[in-house]
Design goal:
The chain is an alpha+beta fold. Helices cover 15% and strands 15% of the residues. It is built from two helices and four strands. Strands 1-2 form a two-stranded antiparallel ribbon. A two-stranded antiparallel sheet has the order 3-4. A hairpin with a 2-residue loop joins β3 and β4. The longest helix has 10 residues.
Length: 109
């Protein structure tokens, strides 16, 4: 453990929360509710949103580029972090997909 002058721990702190203008854009593009749809096409719609970094993932590059992010609810954000959804879409019948930032899983989430 490294202690900086004045006795504080010296560590790198990176804020994962996007700036307000990015948060507004992400919320607006998902219609102010979680965009995940169930197998019947019913939208989650939960308005309590978190910000998921998918392209590239946060672990790869720490960014707040809205083109590589999506707003998701507290239930679906951890599932996205775990890899439940993919950003590719080969077409209908593909695995869980993130297409134009509308998530349509083919199995229950």
């Amino acid at each position: 453990m490294r202690v900086a002058q004045h006795g504080f721990l010296d560590f790198r702190y990176v804020n994962r929360t996007p700036p307000p203008e990015v948060r507004r854009e992400l919320r607006r593009e998902v219609g102010f509710g979680c965009p995940v749809r169930d197998a019947d096409g019913v939208r989650c719609g939960n308005p309590y949103l978190y910000y998921h970094h998918f392209d590239p993932p946060w672990a790869t590059e720490e960014h707040h580029n809205p083109a590589g992010m999506i707003a998701l609810c507290g239930e679906h954000h951890p599932k996205a972090d775990a890899g439940t959804f993919t950003p590719e879409c080969p077409g209908p019948g593909s695995p869980d997909t993130l297409v134009n930032k509308v998530i349509m899983p083919l199995r229950p989430v």
